[in-house]
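Give me structure tokens for this 130-residue protein.
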Amino acid sequence: MSKAQTSNLRRFLPIGPRGWLARTPGFTACEVRQLLREGAGSVRGRAVSRVLARTSDWLPDEPDIIAFPFHYWRQLPQILLAYSRGETVEAIGQRISLYGAAWGVEHRVEMACRRIAACLNRDLASYGLA
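Here you go.
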């Protein structure tokens, strides 16, 4: 079964982020990205900050040639910290990328936000949400 089919079947589950009976307050990558920019002003923002501080929870143990190549994998905590402080993806790309390309930084921020959202959805209590 492909990943697309699995995610389509999840919408039929009664309980969960997209459940038809009871919805839980799940995090999305888009929300995590927004909360990174907003900071720890809200309860959900503080939870995102806690996950960001625990790099071992969301950062893979080894670089991945597609999602997190070594160059980006090594600098991903610094990239997300700069992004959370309000720097643009273009400015970060010019500073850390070999060719100053923003598309690589943009993709890595998106992939990291997905992993952070997955950590939060897996165990809300560990990050201060009951």
